[in-house]
Amino acid sequence: MPRKTVNVALLSYTPDPENVVALAARTCYSASDLNALKKRVSKRDQTDFIKMVTQMGHLSTTEHVSFTFAVEGVSRALLAQITRHRIASFSVQSQRYVSMENNDGETFGYIVPPAIEALGEEAVKEFDAQMAQMQSWYNNWQARLSKAAGGGEKANEDARFVLPNACETRFIVTMNARELMHFFSLRCCGRAQWEIRELAWRMLEEVRKVAPALFGACGPACLSGPCPEGNKSCGKAAQMKARSEELNARIQENK
């Protein structure tokens, strides 16, 4: 069965993102002209300055840099969550133009929740069988609607109504650094849903590799202060900090 797992790739990002942020910030605080500021930024490490600016909350300067990711092996349930982050651009695989029809005994790609896997092999087999049944339903409707409507997207757009939230999707997403910081603070949190939490940590790893001054302290809000969830806190601040440190260590080892 084609069970899928998350895969993330950083496709592109603003060149020299940390210098761009530093230049934007220094423009706000300096009387020097652009050429002088560019020379100043290029000759010095801007790490401490960027940390100071972000800690001050002057985050508009981070909106000048953006990062584009390719994501696959995630569910339509995750798609519904991540598209709530409105300051982002998405290009998503269409279930209208891409047929999920499969007559070779395989099913569409899908994601198995870890909680179901934890129930044991029989539970996973039951889940697999349900996905196969949905594939059969889809094939049936796709064939019937194709005959009635002449095939193609007209059949796909209605046959897809029987597909589950578990169905795999893939997309390209672009966010600026400020929105990524906000995204990480919410979705790396221990209270976030497991799938989008894993995606957020994978994305965080990718941007920390290329812009550590911007994202070195990013992650769940408990990394930099008390948990904002109050009495709904997951109580795992220590584990979150350990995961962040492990992430930095792994990045350093792979340099």
Structural class: alpha+beta
Residue-averaged pLDDT, rounded?
A: 92
- The gross shape turns out to be elongated
Strand order of the largest sheet: 1-2-4-3
Helix and strand sequence: EHHHEHEHHHEHHHH
Q: What kind of sheet is the major sheet?
A: 4 strands, antiparallel
Low-confidence stretches: none
Counting DSSP H or I runs of 4 or more residues, the number of helices is 11
Helix content: 40-55%
State the end-to-end CA separation: 36 Å
Tell me the number of strands.
Answer: 4
Kindly estimate the percentage of residues that lie in beta strands according to DSSP: 5-15%
Specify Rg, calculated over alpha carbons: 22 Å
Q: Care to give the gist of this entry?
A:
The protein is α+β, with helices and mostly antiparallel strands. It has eleven helices and four strands.
Walkthrough of the structure:
With 255 residues, the protein is an alpha+beta fold. The chain is built from eleven helices and four strands, in the order βαααβαβαααβαααα. It has a four-stranded antiparallel beta sheet with strand order 1-2-4-3. Helix 6 runs antiparallel to helix 7. The model has no long low-confidence stretch (mean pLDDT 92).
